[in-house]
């Protein structure tokens, strides 16, 4: 009997082990709590509460997963994507979106270091505008990635599918099949178009920055091997180039415009340097101005790159309201943890305020910039004077209109007086 009990226990352990390490970790009818999942390098693991058919997920689910790479003996990067969010309600505000709220369906992602949460994202609505992709650096085994799904206490729509999460460890010197590894960095193109401001903000989800050419490389020397490497990946598994280098996409460059008649070609552009605390730096290269674009004094444009035939790349100055895909660069996590390595993942996620001129250390350029600034201020003053004169003209015109109206009123009164006088004369003639 004891032998049989032992065999049953072993069988139960094997079944539980098989269940926990299976590719899909579901939470549909019964809550699963504190499930540890080892994520492999090759195929993505799905950790989810995702139902394909009726009746959908159940009420009062409370499912938790703790994720970690297999063979966890060195720093690793995890790529987390949320391709499906299908909750039964959509009227939950961001302020109400937390796992302690039993009146909302909530999915949360938490990154913990020694039981201290330092990164937390939550989704409570299908309409959430939050980016549904994340890069997470796990420097050692003390970093824990926790996912949690909690359904509310009522079911408004019976066929709601829930949430699906795909998790994968980025391969060393490979990144991901949708990314290009090149010279120590992973490059990706956002699947959806966005404004430049949105692109800067989204870069933090990838622990990276909107693409700029490395400071120590000129454009042609960088793009030639970059394009070649992307092409070579088509001959490797999964036998396709990871990046679609066609059309237009945002870069991390921008230009502050100081004239209503910009030049046909700008000779330089600004960017935020993550290695200098996101301070504004200047890079010299040609950026074409679109004649159809309209800009005012002290306006700003964002720089987009256009991929042409034969590997040519051109840059144009585009409106800040335009929407394009963005290329994001993120550093691959080093093989060993070091004190300086976290600086590799400084994200410049906000465009700086408008600057009259880029900073420079050369006195002649400083003097020239000062003169240009004075001219620009004089232009502003002249423009203000023109506006004041135009306002005065409008006021004079209004006064003339008022005088003309008064004249018409006096004329009308005279006509009425003459008419009354005629009527009195007629009555007088009758009584005579």
From TrEMBL:
Look up the domain of life of the source.
Answer: Eukaryota
Q: Which UniProt keywords apply?
A: Signal
In the UniProt record, the signal sequence range is 1-22
Entry protein name: CUB domain-containing protein
Organism lineage: Eukaryota, Metazoa, Spiralia, Lophotrochozoa, Platyhelminthes
